[in-house]
Amino acid sequence: MLLSRTVLRFLNNILPACSVDSWRHLVASTWPLRLRHAPFTRLGTDTFLAVSPGGIILNTADADLIAQITSRGTDFPKPTHIYRLISIYGENILSSEGTTWRHHRKLTSPAFSEKNNQLVWKETLDLSQTMVASWAGTGKSRTTTQVAPDTMRFSLEIIGRAGLGQQMDWDDGDDSQALPMGHTMSFSSSFQFIALNILALVSVMALPSRLARMLPINFVQKAYQAYDNWGKYMEDMIESKKRGIRDSTQRSAGDLIGQLLQQDTENGLKPLSDSEILGNVFFFIVAGHETSASSLHMTIMLLALYPSVQKELQKDLARILNGRPLSEWDYEKDFPRLSNSMLGAVWNEELRLVSPVLTIPKMVCARPQRVIIEGRQVDLPANMMMRLCIPSVHVNPNCWPSGPPSNVSTPIFPLDNLTNDLEEFKPSRWILNPSLDTTDNTLQLPVDEGYISKPGTPTTNNPFPTRLYTPPKGAFIPFSDGQRACLGRRFAQVEILAALAVIFTQYSVELAVGDWASDEEVSCMSKAEREGVWEKAADRARESWQNKLKCAITVQLSSEGRVPLRFVKIGAERFFDCCA
What we know:
The protein has 580 residues and is an alpha+beta fold. Helix content is 46%, strand content 9%.
């Protein structure tokens, strides 16, 4: 895999630039991140085949076909062999299929109950206050570029407290401090190395262990060191939970590790092996914390880039929460209102534009399968690989209502959707007619007729608010769909919406302009001058959004794409009166 990427990169460097539908783009698994729906538009279809000596891959951005595939789990299973990178500690719910997957899901799903979501809510309210206060600083507001690493740390702590029932000590990767006996790296240092180098680590782990450990290559040695250290930390955590269950007269609380250790003898449910427990814990920590952290970070950045949306969000939060202290926020009362409000629309729009994952891999089972593609019956050959392209279907004009672009001369994405606004951050597209019921104090937003859900719009049983626009089934799949939909989607929803509510009931976020003007210079500027300096910061933020995203396990902003931000108390903004 690494060799093929290297060869392709070499070819792209020496050959002339190619079109969006060139094989040089489409043979790479990450092409939807950069090209989005453009190849489908160029080819004149929402489904095409990529044929190579390695096999045939069906690529689709057709919401109806995606809905067929995700609703027929037996006919179109996951190709579990490609999830080797997430199984380095043991088989887990993502890397398994059939009866093994059902067994894993039955044991893990109780850890994501509504009772546990209330704990997520409580812990998020607590930790969010500390996080945003560190960004705002004391006295004068200061510029920060720590939103990305801080949200990673924050999300890891939420998963530890609410998901695993454990305190996750985070030490900024400092190995100079005293380490526990038997360890040569800190928890954070080993975890960060694994998370940042997961693809290379898989290649190293594929080597014979005895040979690899003897190779005089620093990266290989550190890879094994990180792998061994983090595995020992997690084994200690699991063993501690085992002792707690043995020593207690009560069954474990509803956290993930406790559920994985349970033995349901009445129903004949055998416990998972130690490696399977470790494999599931690794998957939920790595995938879960990256997904939530990246989504929270990108939502904050987009709100800084779109101050008018941020102002509408703050008005809505003020109407729902009515200035109550956090101690009076109630999960059962407030969370449904928040998820049905502009806050829910903002997060849905961020997920639409920056999906946590790029594609959902599927394959045809051992028998050919018949589907409907663009009104025609098509037989798909057995064992053919399939790629459900999430960024592509999320901006597919054949699936989504749209309006005209805000600025024809400077499109967000210059390769496609030039005549509509589907590449733009517009949470208002999710808002249905707000006059239906005002008893819950939701904001009376102006209705854009282009986004009203039309009669007969297909609905789906999903975790997203019912008062927001419901896209056609298969058109909005940030957490997949069907029986293999992400088990932690509600966990993430509660965590992210609660964190955003805490932040934006107290603070506003602005793009930092310190690279072009000091605070004193900004204070003396006219409105036109402030608008000019803000546009420079906005250009940098748009460049990061468009070109600095990367994907290993999940999609996130690269370190070089971090945008400097400033958090100020509501009312102390410097640019809200002069920017879009």
